[in-house]
Specification:
Oligomer: single chain
Number of helices: 11
Shape: globular
Strand content: 5-15%
Distance between the termini: 23 Å
Bound molecules: zinc ion
Structural class: alpha/beta
């Protein structure tokens, strides 16, 4: 196992549970190797619905904020991360046609500069070498995910600039910025095909039928981090978000050993690097080992 001590990775996510559904196995791997992994959660997930029938109870709905905080605490322990709240309120998933306006005071409507300053402050305190966030589509079109992308990219640029937010701490320029591509179509297709080949029912038939292949989009993946060994830890972290995750749902329809065999990586796109590296990569810290990360 490579030694990752002294290296720091920071993921920026929109809601509690996103850290467990995207990049969680690579997180667990880097923690096991001695890296410090931080998660910034932009919102409290206050407007999330209850997606687990067992938790669809009035007492859960009434205490959603507290429950989601407790779920996040449990996931944090399982993943071995340090977690920071950015302190914004969930925008909710706009339902209807046309979509209703976003609720007042939510993250999606918060002034960009205010959110960027809060994240810059965290980046300058934690001093991560690597930052991850969502692509410009948000990974999926939730307004908080799109906003999370905008805030992360702007903060990655600003954190090292002494002229930006001079009251938010000593400048620190993270070396690399990545976008998550965990749920890419080729992976979904490969898992689907393997399920059918084993005579199992695939949870992906409908999704694939509606999902137009986008080879140019998939070609943006530069970095595949082997982390199949840690898929079990990811599953435990997901289950900790009991209001959001149905243990009998699609998340767990693919047997662990099949996923480990067919697609044992989590996939990322390297967007910016201030250190020399060659793509394709298999490590978010490529170019930062060998003492480059001594700062
Ligand atoms: Zn989310």
């Amino acid at each position: 196992m490579p030694d990752s001590s002294g290296l720091r990775l920071l993921h920026v996510h929109a809601h509690p549970d996103d850290e467990s559904s995207k990049g969680a196995a690579s997180t667990a791997r880097y923690v096991a190797e001695g890296a410090e992994v931080h998660v910034v959660t932009c919102t409290g997930g206050e407007r999330g619905s209850v997606l687990n029938p067992r938790m669809d109870r009035p007492d859960v709905w009434e205490n959603m904020s507290e429950i989601r905080r407790a779920e996040m605490d449990a996931a944090r322990e399982i993943l071995g991360i340090t977690q920071h709240w950015l302190g914004f309120v969930d925008s909710g998933w706009p339902e209807g046609d046309p979509k209703p306006p976003l609720p007042e005071g939510c993250f999606g409507l918060a002034p960009l500069e205010e959110a960027v300053e809060r994240l810059v402050r965290i980046l300058r305190t934690v001093r991560p070498h690597v930052v991850t966030t969502y692509d410009e589509r948000g990974g999926y079109p939730h307004p908080d995910h799109v906003r999370c992308h905008e805030v992360s990219v702007a903060a990655f640029e600003a954190a090292g600039d002494p002229e930006r937010f001079p009251d938010a701490g000593e400048p620190w320029q993270p070396a690399k910025l990545y976008y998550h591509h965990t749920f890419n179509r080729p992976r979904t297709q490969a898992l689907h095909d393997a399920m059918l080949a084993r005579g199992l029912e695939s949870p992906y038939a409908e999704r694939l039928a509606d999902w137009k292949p986008e080879p140019d989009w998939d070609a943006r993946i530069t970095t595949r981090v082997p982390c199949g060994e840690y898929f079990g830890v990811r599953d435990q972290a997901l289950l900790a978000h009991a209001t959001q995750i149905d243990p009998d749902g699609a998340w767990f329809a693919v047997p662990l050993d099949l996923a480990q065999e067919v697609w044992p990586t989590e996939d990322y796109e390297l967007v910016t690097s201030h250190v020399p590296t060659t793509t394709p990569e298999d490590d978010l810290f490529a170019g930062l080992r060998d003492g480059a990360a001594s700062a």
